[in-house]
Amino acid sequence: MRCCCPGPRIPAVKRLTASHSPRALTIRPSTATTPRTTVRPSDRQRSDRRVRRAQTGGVPYGCLCRPIASCPRRRGAVMTGRAVPPRVVAAQCAASEAGFTKSCTPEVGRLLRLAAAAKPHGIIAESGTGSGVGTAWLHSGLGSRARLTTAEHDVVLARRAAGLFADDDRVHVLAGDWRLLEQHAPFDVFFCDGGGKRDDPERVVDLLAPGGLLILDDFTPSPHWPPRFDGEVDELRTFYLTHPSLDATEILTTPVSSAVVGARRL
Ligand SMILES: C[S@@+](CC[C@H](N)C(=O)[O-])C[C@H]1O[C@@H](n2cnc3c(N)ncnc32)[C@H](O)[C@@H]1O
User: Fold this and answer.
1) How many domains in the chain?
2) Ligand 1 atom showing the smallest separation from residue 109 Cα
C-alpha cells in the first residue's frame, strides 16, 4: 500500500514486527537467540488485521503506511487538535492514494455530522461520493436506524468508497448518476456535492422531505446581496438562498469558504 503522506515507506515485512505495534507480537525479527518464526499465510493475515486495528483505533481498515506516531495525518487525527473519526481518516488516506483532491474539509465534515445526528431515524443522501470523506463524516453522525445512500458516477471511486463502509449495512454506495438517489427520496439530509447542485437545482429541492436539511458547500463568501462571485451575481447561490420552499442561509466554513444550509418548509 502506498503511503498517504511524505516520507520513506516501510517495507511490508517490517510492518509486522513488534517494534511497529506492541500488539503484533506473534511475529518477531530473527535474532541470535530467537529463531525466525515461519509465517503461514493465515498467520500473516491475522497479524496484519491486528496491526490495522491497533493503528486505526480498533477499526479493521485504514492506512498501514507507517506506525501511527510517524504518520502526520493519523497522528493529527488522534493526538492533536479536534478528533477526526477513524473512518474519515481512512477515507482521506484513500483520497490521497487515488490523487483525489475534491474531498470536503473537516469544517464541512463537522456540519455534515451535525446534520446526520439531527435526524437519527433519517434518510440521508449524498450526491458525489468522491473518495468517501463526506460520506464518512455523515456516517459519524448516523443514528442506528438511519440510512445513508451516496451516488458517484466514477465507478472506480465508488467501488473504493464502498469498501470503506462494507461492514455497515446502513450505508449504500451507488455507482452511477446522482439521479439513482431519487428512488430513496424524500431525504431528511441531502449533501448535494456532485450532480444536481448545478444541473437540476429545482429537483434537488424537490427531493427533500418536509423539514429536510440541504447542505451545499464550496462557495466563496461575498459581502454583497445578492451574493457575487467573480464580479457577477451568483445566480445558483441566490436560487437556493431565496427558494420559496426553503429557509436557507449561508454560513462561513472557513474565513474563505462558505456553505448554504437550508431546511425544507413543511
Ligand atoms: C466535490 S467531489 C465530492 C466530494 C465528496 N462529497 C466529499 O465530501 O468528500 C464531486 C464528486 O461528484 C462526482 N459527480 C459529478 N457529477 C456527478 C453525477 N452526475 N452523478 C454522480 N456523481 C457525480 C464526481 O465524480 C466527484 O467525485
Assistant:
1) 2
2) 8
**44 and 79 inside one domain:** yes
pLDDT at residue 35 greater than cutoff 60: no
Residue range 156-213, pLDDT digits in tens: 999 999 999 999 999 999 999 999 999 999 999 999 999 999 999 999 999 999 999 9
Q: Are residues 111 and 171 in the same domain?
A: yes
Ligand 1 centre distance from Cα of residue 221 (Å): 22
Rounded to the nearest angstrom, the distance between the alpha carbon of 265 and the centre of ligand 1 is 27
Buried b (16+ CB within 10 A) or exposed e, 56-86: bbebebbbbbbbbeebebbeebeeeeeebbb
Q: Are residues 177 and 240 in the same domain?
A: yes
Asked if 175 and 111 sit in the same domain, the reply is yes
pLDDT digits 0-9 by tens, 64-108: 444 444 444 544 444 457 899 999 999 999 999 999 999 999 999
| Matching residue, cell 444541473 | 199
> What's the gap in Å between 146 CA and the centre of ligand 1?
22
Length of the chain as a residue count = 266
